[in-house]
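Technical note accompanying the year-one report. For the benefit of new consortium partners, we illustrate the data format agreed upon in the data management plan: each record pairs a sequence with a structure-token string. No post-processing was applied to the example shown here.
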Amino acid sequence: MATVLSNPIASVQLKCQITAGAAPAVVMSQVNHQPNFSLGAGNTAGNVDRCFCEAFTVTAGTPLTINVATATDPMGNALGMVHVTSVLVENDSTTAGQDFTVGGGTHPVLGTDQGTAQANGGVVCIVNPNPGYAVVSGTSDTLQISVASGTNVAGKVTVLGRSA
């Protein structure tokens, strides 16, 4: 059965209020940083038509390696990604030091880009929709997730990309 991806959404927002002083001379500042990017459904630049998503566990010294060209989508169909546009990795560990490194390894699809998702709520989020990271078999086709310490450290990964 063919898979059709629809309604892709990627968003990030950091927001806070800063207050200084005492009444009646209170000074406030609002911070709201929300990058303006959107993803459409399709296989052209700026769009996505492929999705990989799974919960996983990883052990120090034995990284998780996902081949984005040959992995399967949540429906069991071959991904066949040609570009990776978005990566989201969540670290579910509550143990200090069980930090994930996202990227690196052999044939890294992210090139030299790497991120750290620390234990206790750490997340790595990469969104580069146009043109995205090129997937080349045997050269740049894997996403590696490793952990600094621990056994069976849980996390979640979602990768969006396109087939052209």
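Partners are asked to follow this layout when depositing records. The two ends are 20 Å apart (CA to CA).
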